[in-house]
Amino acid sequence: MRTITTTEELAAYCKEAANHPFVTVDTEFLRERTYYSKLCLVQLAMPGTDDSGAVLVDPLVDGLSMEPLYDLFRDTSVVKVFHAARQDLEIFFVDAQVFPEPLFDTQVAAMVCGFGEQVGYETLVRKIAKEGVDKTSRFTDWSRRPLTDAQKTYALADVTHLRQVYEFLAAKLEKTGRHKWVEEELEVLTNPDTYITAPRDAWKRVKTRTNSGRFLGIVRELAAFREAYAQDRNVPRSRVYKDDAMVELASNKPKNHEELGRARLLLRDARKGEIADGILKAVAAGLACPNDDLPQPDRGREKLQVNPALADLLRVLLKAKTESSGVAAKLIATAADLDAIAAGERDVQALGGWRLEVFGTDALALCAGKIALTAAGNEVKVVPV
């Protein structure tokens, strides 16, 4: 189990990897105590059937630069293979504003290839590679050194078995002509906007039961302050204050430290110092916000006049298409998509791209009364009207 600890070693490995059609990649990281993930380990494997082309890279070693790896990521002749890549990609984007290109995500590919919704790595290894994965080191502190042999074995398994999983799924996509579908889905993973949370937009992630513009205006200011504070100091949002405390503050609207001290859900550290001052300024800003600048709740869904019978038919159609195509239903269309279509909306993800071919065309025909659904035993069939 080789561990790379110098930039020179990493550069040599990446130079060799660049001669291969693909390389598998995984990371181990910590995020419990920080806003941004702390990269603790990178695992890499070149094509092969043994561990000779697999290595661990220790980014915590002083003086080791990750730039050779990022150069490999920029090399478009080598496919970079991940499983459930989103958190890994966020780490590399935050660190170096780089995305692996081209990218292959086996979780996305598996959903297109009939393995169900958000299938786990362990399941794919068992079904495709016919191997088991020891997950005893799953919950571990990857920042501690030295790493144990058990940790290293666990970490390497995340890229060695991934080679066979990738080769199987890539071949299946090529055979079915669905590789373009996967590429469409991966576009969001290589979009910088996916990983950037602007403080001014952070309020949209807070669940509230009140749609008052003034209330939401205060939530917007409180969420913006929390996001900026957490980003600047690299601490989790929850260490500043949690969502339930934010909602309480927006409801009670404290105007001074004495009133702030009565908040039941606020952490002790948030009742004084910079956080307390920031809260009071945010509340004041929300109260002073002009009416025409207050955020408005999205009531678009509330206004939809959903035809419930048509929505039910669309659900039956989706189930039929899922079974015939082998593509996970959640990947084709969400429940909200189906309701929107049944209400007459047409700017819906399920009606565009590869989804139009798999589901959208027949969904529109069903809405227009041009097709009907019939049952033949356990199978649902589409028939023209």
Radius of gyration: 25 Å
How many angstroms does the end-to-end distance come to? 64 Å
Structural class: alpha/beta
Q: Given the C-alpha coordinates, what overall shape results? A: flat
In the residues, how many domains can be counted?
3
Average pLDDT, to the nearest integer? 94
Order of helices and strands: EHEEEHEHEHHHHHHHHHHHHHHEE
Strand content is: 5-15%
Spans where pLDDT lies below 50 across 5 or more residues = none
Total helical segments: 17
Sheet with most strands: strand arrangement: 1-4-3-2-5-6
DSSP summary, beta strand count: 8
Oligomerization state of this entry? single chain
Question: Can you walk me through this structure?
Answer:
There is one protein chain. The chain has 385 residues and is an alpha/beta fold. The protein has three domains: 2-194, Nucleotidyltransferase, domain 5; 199-293, Orthogonal Bundle (DNA polymerase, domain 1); 301-384, DNA polymerase, domain 1 (Orthogonal Bundle). The chain is 48% helix and 11% strand. It is built from 17 helices and eight strands. The chain has helices spanning 7-17, 67-74, 86-96, 106-112, 121-129, 149-176, 179-186, 213-233, 237-240, 243-252, 257-260, 273-288, 300-303, 308-325, 329-332, 335-342, 353-367, and strands spanning 2-4, 22-30, 38-45, 54-57, 79-82, 103-105, 371-376, 379-384. The chain has a six-stranded mixed β-sheet with strand order 1-4-3-2-5-6, sandwiched between helices. Helix 1 runs parallel beside helix 2. It is flat. The model has no long low-confidence stretch (mean pLDDT 94). This is Ribonuclease D. Keywords: Cytoplasm, Exonuclease, Hydrolase, Nuclease, tRNA processing. It is found in: Cytoplasm. Its main location: cytoplasm. Residues 212-293 form the HRDC domain.
